[in-house]
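Q: Could you predict the 3D structure of Iron-sulfur Rieske protein?
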Amino acid sequence: MKVSADVRAMIERRKKNYSLEAPFYTSDEIFALDMEAIFRQHWIQVAVEPDVPEPGDYITVDIGNDSILIVRDDDMQVRAFHNVCRHRGARLCNTDKGSLGNIVCPYHSWTYNLNGDLMFAEHMGEQFDRCKHSLKAVHVENLAGLIFICLADNPPADFAVVRAAMEPYMLPHALASCKIAASIDIIEEGNWKLTMENNRECYHCVANHPELTISLYEYGFGYQRTPANEEGMAAFEETVARRTAQWEAMQLPSAEIERLADLVTGFRTQRLPLDRDGESQTLDAKVASKKLLGGFEQADLGGLSFWTQPNSWHHFMSDHIVSFSVIPLSAGKTLVRTKWLVHKDAREGIDYDVDNLTAVWRATNDQDRALVEYSQRGATSSAYEPGPYSPFTEGLVEKFCEWYIGRMAQYSNAPQTHDAGDTAPASHGEKVVSFKR
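A: Sure. Here are the predicted structure tokens for Iron-sulfur Rieske protein:
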């Protein structure tokens, strides 16, 4: 896709530690570029393994004009294909999810197995070669139960860096042995970057998220140190250091890894304690499910957060997992998909109550939707201009924008290249920063 001179100029003049210029949030031209340069070139988190628990189970996910079919095959592997028949292009699966034995086109009954091989195509003659008409595969990675796809011919190779770093953190929570207890889609009337920027800070949390801040430490939001809060911040930092040492001794990796801006597949993780002797992100900070995940025997294991560029964040606790995936729909409209997962043997109404399980993030998502929409409306004003980020609470917003502008610049200069070979050492920063989503 050709990048206009005006867009190139905006990319080149982007001011560090300031929000983006308005067209990055409002322009249809830039939205189209985002879909091509970001969502077609990078690893996009779109599902969790329990979306397709059994052979033949499938879901469909739309990325721009592309419908992607994600299915579990007979060998229990998760596969991804373009949801397009190789005959005349009809869409194969036309529901969001389901189960099937073979993949059968509803138009002329061309039939594919779960590996994507064309098995049956009537009336095509003796010279027809079925082997040349398999479904078009999409690159897929399963990271400890989180499913990522990439639409590029040559996806970024640095996913191996993410896997090596994150599997030790995530595997103890046994996401693959969970079930989806609830899933909610919301539409935010705002640009996807505003959704992600809002996620990357908690400057706004105390004033806007009373439910979420029950279980999150106030000083975990990122604060400017002052004489008035010095004692509280020191106590929080001592708690983090003490609990991190305890968890590490339990073989639960917890230290911060921050690679949000220096990798093509940017990510960050950290396990932090929860407030009020917290066990989980609930209205009383206690577990929402009596059936703990994996082999856990105690509930107060804090909250492990995992963020990925460009479109997801996840919270892993002792009793449940909350997974968020963001899909752009237009320059001013974004899908936010939230899934709550519990142990596959947990019994609804006995071990957990869905309303209690989802209460905090249902409220928080609705509050964040309003904040994103306020920001989108402001970006359309003639008075809008990029404003400065707080160096204490919005550093990770800057990391997101730095990553985004870097990827856009890379695409503008060389649309088909990646700098995925970057394997610089991970940063284990001393600064403790928590942000809510």
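Q: Anything worth pointing out?
A: Residues 44-140 form a domain with the Rieske Iron-sulfur Protein fold (CATH 2.102.10.10).
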